[in-house]
Amino acid sequence: xxxxxxxxxxxxxxxxxxxxxxxxxxxxxxxxxxxxxxxxxxxxxxxxxxxxxxxxxxxxxxxxxxxxxxxxxxxxxxxxxxxxxxxxxxxxxxxxxxxxxxxxxxxxxxxxxxxxxxxxxxxxxxxxxxxxxxxxxxxxxxxxxxxxxxxxxxxxxxxxxxxxxxxxxxxxxxxxxxxxxxxxxxxx
Length: 188
Known about the structure:
Helices cover about 75% and strands about 0% of the residues.
């Protein structure tokens, strides 16, 4: 719990720094940092422990190639969607969503992009864990993988949000006719 909470808080700070999202006063430590720590410690960690434990129990003693492939499929088709849905719902609430339709909209908008990243990284990480790591180290290993991926997704999302805010604040340089202000016909 402590590891996941710390990594989630650090992920928020690091993503803000990467995206240059310093907030009002230029600080990268915002009110989201303790919320992310709470999410990591009390939601992500217990959920990850339970889901990985169930996966390991389902495939205990099975070492064949068929069993390993089936384990990867179960992870990608059942475990990852559960974890990603909970992650997106939690991020929506942390970002200020207060109504069910707001949380649902966040999940719908973010689910497939996050699942695509999961479908690329999860089989590689699970195959690595199956081959090289003892089972008791899987949860910390997957926490580190989730930290890297989560930081990337969080920083990417922050950059997009900042670009939208800049565009709203400064405009996109186009007049109402669609031409750029610098190259209108009157200046020729």
